[in-house]
Amino acid sequence: MSRQCPRCSLFSPPGAVRCDCGHDFQTGKMEPSFVMADVIQKAGGAAKLLEQTGRSNMRTGAILFWLGAGFTVLTYLAGSIRPESQGGGGFFLFWGALVFGALQFLRGVDQRRKGRRLAEHAKRPGSGSAWTIDGVRFDTTGWQLQDASAATMIWTDPDGDVLSLSHVRGQADVPSGDDLPTLRARCRQLAAANNGGLVYADFVNGDGVRAVSLIYKREQLPAYAYTGMVIIPREGHHFLVTVASIERGTTGMRDAIVTARLVQQGKLDPTKTDENRRIAGWFNDPYDVKYSATALNSVADGEQYDSIVPSHPLSKVRGTLRTIEKSIAFQP
Asked: CA-CA distance, 232 to 160, in Å (whole number)?
């Protein structure tokens, strides 16, 4: 059954991750369109596309700037040879062409620089990580780069999962010190704001930098969608790494496998249910037993079960976060 975008009403194939307008079906947020992926492929990769686009913008900017400068000089010369009684002595400054041309040229320089940096990385044998926006690096083995800009990079894997890195202006809303209760309360609010429930939240260290790692899940019937984030505070700005995955095909396999194992071990009684006719104690907040609103975290979501179902979306999201936390580095 086709998926209709709630923003532009365009119909997409059933397995589509993102609408052509940029609406992400998993997160419900606007992201760069995957239509760009075809452009990248035709250009021979993101590095070549960035270099080509950079050269084009440099050329366009230089032409506009020199046209503006040339016409400004011509009006100045024309005014200088006419007497003041005939309107001489003045000139017209083509500031629009000068300013826009200069900005376009500088934008092209930045794009070309980033393209060359990506190209240099691609020549390094055996490397699964890349210097990305603003000199951030982490292991991207198994991920295919789909889009790149000065502020955002997006990868996908063969299953259609999405990994992104964004440079965000402004200080991250992260508590100082080791205030875990406050951190988890804020992460719980973030999950609830996205119609989800918290699965995990903690402080982590990456390349000597204090960061926040979290996972939340959302109901997207008949499946669950999982989103993992690593928030890296920096002075006056922060980086945000996001990985999103959703159950595909037969859903509920993780819960079924874990339930059967716990029943067999005598650790779970499926006949005991709560007021919502769910197994008593199955759903709970991972850090606050008294919290019940949007508590979607289940017993089966425990990290100890990831090895049993390694291909499950939660296992993949958690594994990706662990890889990022271990491999992330910052270019001096």
From this structure: 25
Query: What region does 130 belong to: left with phi over 0, alpha with psi -120 to 50, or beta?
Result: beta
pLDDT tens by residue, the chain, 332 residues: 556 777 766 666 655 666 766 677 777 766 655 555 556 656 666 677 778 888 899 999 999 999 988 888 888 777 665 555 555 556 788 888 889 999 999 988 988 887 776 666 555 444 444 445 666 888 888 888 777 777 788 888 888 899 999 888 888 888 877 889 999 999 999 898 888 999 999 999 888 888 999 999 998 888 899 999 999 988 888 889 999 999 988 888 999 999 999 888 888 888 887 776 778 778 888 998 888 777 788 999 999 999 999 999 999 999 999 999 999 888 65
Q: If residue 186 lies in a helix (H) or strand (E), which one and from where to where?
A: helix 180-193
- Give the three-class secondary structure for 234: strand
279 forms beta bridges with 273
Separation CA 51–CA 57 (nearest Å): 10
DSSP assignment of 241-253 equals EEEEEE--SS--H
Specify whether the CB–CB gap between 228 and 316 falls below 8 A: no
Q: Hey, is 158 helix, strand or coil?
A: coil
Q: How open is the CA angle 286-183-332, to the nearest 5 degrees?
A: 120
Burial 227-254 (b: 16+ CB within 10 A, else e): bbbbbbbeeeebbebbbbbbbeeebeeb
Please write down the HEC assignment for all residues of 262-323: HHHCCCCCCCCECCCCCECCCECCCCCCCCCCCCCCEHHHCHHHCCCCCCCHHHHHHHHHHH
Nearest to 106, CA basis, from 46, 168, 64, 47: 64
Q: Tokens 């050329």, residue? A: 59
Report domain extents, the chain. Answer: 32-123, 165-330
Q: Tokens 């949007």 belong to which residue?
A: 294
At 232, phi and psi to the nearest 5? -115, 100
